[in-house]
Amino acid sequence: MTFAALILAGSRGGEDPVASHAGVADKALVDIDGQSMLSRVIGAVREAGVGRIAVSAQGPAVQAEADRCGATPVAAEAGPSASTASGLRTLGAPLLVTTGDHALLKPEWVRDFVARVPTGTDVAVLVARREAVGAAAPGSRRTYLRFADGHWSGCNLFFLATPRAEAAVRLWQAVEKDRKRPWRIVRRLGPVLLLRYLAGRLTLTEAVAHLGRRAGVVAAAIACPDGLAAVDVDKPADLDFVRGYLAQARVPDRA
């Protein structure tokens, strides 16, 4: 594929519950099925056909793991949005962005996502319906946003298709900066959008398009048919689910 990929593997600061649960220094180094979580993500992105892969990371251990896996380690900034902005400036667009805790990432998700981004789109996000997540990952607890056309969960896959996507990343930075001051987020995103959402009259497609226009870009949400794409490792229960899922997948079908 003729674009680069950025894997966000920075630390939130303080003690990470997943790393503590697994007994390692950093979540990206957690062992899953004989591989570090980061190496699994790098491998999936590479198998999807992406040749140039950078890993935004803090600390020498994670950077060394990225280098061992053939990816380019780059210093993480203060937060995922700032790291993405830095990565976009360095790597350019088009740029695929995912996270180092996307332990079950499959190459076909990446290929299908990028292939379905509409022509003229500046930034796209992959999402999954609650029904698809429930069918593919029963028992996994996800966070959903409720829209008029269903409940949706993010899949930690973004495609910054053009240089104009930088404007969307700037909006992301502003929202991230004001996450503890909700009234500022509402002011930035617009009260009309919020009211339509609260009234249950806003679809996901409309919301993403509206947010894109606020940022000055064309934005799109792409639905992934495989709900497993919404599973990341954000808490110890997620790690237990992923390990259990992979263990079950290795068991031969006796039917």
UniProtKB/TrEMBL annotation:
Q: Where is the signal peptide?
A: none
- Molecular functions per Gene Ontology: nucleotidyltransferase activity
**Superkingdom to which the source organism belongs:** Bacteria
Task: Give the SUPFAM superfamilies listed for this entry.
Answer: Nucleotide-diphospho-sugar transferases
Q: Where is the MobA-like NTP transferase domain?
A: 5-146
**UniProt xrefs under InterPro entries:** MobA-like_NTP_Trfase, Nucleotide-diphossugar_trans
Q: Which UniProt keywords apply?
A: Magnesium, Nucleotidyltransferase, Transferase
Q: What is this protein called?
A: GTP--adenosylcobinamide-phosphate guanylyltransferase
Organism in which the protein naturally occurs: Sphingomonas aracearum
